[in-house]
Design brief:
Layout: H1 2-8, H2 17-33, E1 43-48, E2 52-54, E3 58-67, E4 73-79, E5 87-91, E6 96-99, E7 104-113, E8 117-121, E9 125-128, E10 140-141, E11 145-150, E12 156-158, E13 166-167, E14 182-189, H3 201-207, E15 211-217, E16 219-220, E17 222-227, H4 236-254, E18 259-264, E19 269-271, H5 279-289, H6 299-306, E20 315-320, H7 325-336, E21 340-347, E22 360-365, H8 366-370, E23 375-376
């Protein structure tokens, strides 16, 4: 109002607009000068966020605003941090009209991010508004918030490959009892889903609660998953679909009798096998969230990353963005070491015949992954 009225108030002799401008400016200055009197004493702000959010899904942040001061706080407004170029707000926290001494109020912010990877949000700020809402008092800040935007997990219902169990000296800690040879490693409290045959009567009587036997397994099917990060093979959308497919494969394998032992890219090999628990999937998602593309398919580097693990692997799955002699040669070298191989080649359109090579190859349509269709591989 002051800005609009200022040009009209220059002719003081013929207009009274200057009075409106002076009144508006006076109100703004008075609000700014008195803002220190509206400092919210005892105001606290805490933000809770999940560690991971799937790409394209909403991130729900829980804000808790508390009043530890002796006076009631009124007209509290939350100022969200900047979200960056890939973030947008779906729902912002509502204003708090009244917050009594010792009371707490819970608010919700819903955000969405369009880029995979690590994200950090600056603190949320909460402050009292002055009458008329022209200014606010000193703000209280939360801590910063960090989280990962991970790829969407494809709906893989089956993963078929020629896999044979191999002997694993010392067994695998935390794995369930489904292997061919087991050694008794101890007992633990019963959990829903444990087999009744594993109950240990003596330990149950000694502890006063159901106890089950823990076994150390000696024979397992360990699987390695290799990701093709070739930047020149397909588009970025196809690369994101490939990461989604890898996540779906790992998720499906974690539900079965196989152990996803290692996840390999051109830069590193991440060990995932900590037993048959969701931690393997979470570790895989964390790795996929920060994965970037590389120039070309480097079979030599991938083989060097896999080499320390080949003696214990039963099968290697390659998720490829294309197919050529370099990829076929990479799988042939693995098969020469006695490791079964299977390649999933992402393609816009499934061809009638798959390219031939010493291992096996399956074509996976990109559209089926992006549409969230069930995939039987």
């Amino acid at each position: 109002m002051a800005a609009v009225g200022l040009p009209l108030s220059l002719n003081i002799g013929q207009s009274q607009t200057h009075q409106l401008v002076i009144a508006s400016l006076a109100l703004l200055v008075a609000s700014l000068l008195s803002s220190r009197l509206f400092a919210a004493s005892g105001l606290s702000v805490a933000v809770k966020a999940p560690q991971r959010v799937t790409l394209g899904d909403e991130l729900c942040l829980a804000l808790e605003v508390g009043n530890a001061g002796p006076h009631e706080l009124r007209h509290l407004r939350t100022e969200p941090p900047a979200l960056g170029s890939d973030g947008r707000s779906i729902e912002l926290p509502a204003d708090i009209e009244r917050l009594a001494p010792g009371a707490r109020s819970r608010l919700t912010a819903r955000l969405r991010f369009a880029r995979r990877g690590a994200h950090h949000l600056e603190p949320f700020r909460v402050a009292q508004l002055l009458p008329f809402g022209h200014a606010r008092g000193a703000a209280s800040e939360s801590l910063g918030t960090s989280f990962l935007v991970v790829p969407r997990v494809a709906r893989v219902t089956r993963v078929g490959a020629g896999r044979a169990r191999r002997h694993q000296p010392g067994g695998v800690a935390g794995a369930s009892r489904i292997a061919d040879a087991t050694d008794l490693a101890g007992v633990r409290p019963y959990r829903p889903g444990d087999l009744p045959r594993d109950l240990h009567a003596r330990s149950w009587a000694r502890h006063g609660e159901p106890m089950v036997r823990l076994y150390r397994e000696e024979w397992f099917t360990r699987i390695g998953v290799v990701i093709d990060t070739d930047a020149g093979a397909q588009t970025d959308a196809a690369f994101e679909a490939a990461l989604s497919l890898v996540a779906g494969i790992v998720a499906r394998l974690c539900e079965g009798e196989d152990l996803v032992d290692v996840l390999v890219t051109g830069d590193r090999a991440e060990r995932l096998s900590l037993g048959r628990h969701t931690v393997s999937l979470e570790r895989a998602l964390d790795m996929l969230a920060t994965l970037s593309r590389s120039p070309g398919f480097e079979g030599e580097r991938l083989h060097a990353q896999l080499a320390p693990h080949l003696d214990g692997l039963s099968c290697v799955l390659l998720v490829a963005l294309g197919w050529d002699e370099a990829r076929a040669s990479f799988l042939a070298r693995l098969e020469a070491r006695g490791v079964a191989t299977l390649a999933y080649v992402l393609t816009e359109r499934v061809e009638p015949s798959a390219p031939g090579h010493p291992g096996r190859v399956l074509q996976v349509p990109l559209g089926a992954i992006t549409r969230g269709e069930e995939l039987s591989l």
